[in-house]
Design brief:
The structure is a single chain. The chain has a 15-stranded mixed β-sheet. The protein has two helices and 15 strands. By secondary structure, it is mainly beta. 8% of the residues lie in helices and 58% in strands. It starts with a helix and ends with a strand.
Amino acid sequence: MTACLLALAMLQAGAGTPVDDGVLIVRVDTVEVARESFRLRHGRLSRGAAGWTLATTIRYDRARPVVVLAPILEVNGDTMPSTLQYDVADPRQPSRILGELGRGRFTVRLIARDTERAREFPTGPRAVMLDDSVFALYVFAAWRAGAEPGTLTAIFPRGLRRDVVQIRDLGLAPTTLNRDPARLRHITLGEGQEAVHLWLDEGGRLMKVEIPSRHLTAERSTGG
């Protein structure tokens, strides 16, 4: 079975309850720059259908100003993004982002102090919601991976942009997790030097995100 199918099987069994939660420790080189706490639930969504809700909060407090990013994302049974509520606590420009899936499109509204902007993004059949600075969101992209290369429509709501990216499941591979040897499912998102490397355990849980071009890793803390 693929990582996606393993994850879906695990989560279906826990419908209506939290199915995963943890903390990702984010480092650039060896320096910790943030911690991200997340909780994933399976159950009834705000629109009434069944799906998954991911609530995550990442705090960048090793420099000033302190910035906290806190998206709550709902995805439907096909793991398509359904609704988004995203609070950006940045003293320079606090904002709220709201998003909703329509017919073939995802509409994003960005509400700041003095401005409000909106954009509609074509989704295609395979879309994911991502952020360059929030890493738990990558789990839904990882579930979409298969052994053959495929493409995803990646929507970045904070930047109001959309990319088409390649994704591939490379299978089990050796790596490290918090400096300890580990064998995890390796998934690549994007190509070449800009690729993002995702690592899942056998239950489809996101264990590590690596972005070599930024010298960045986000690793699940011990016991998370």
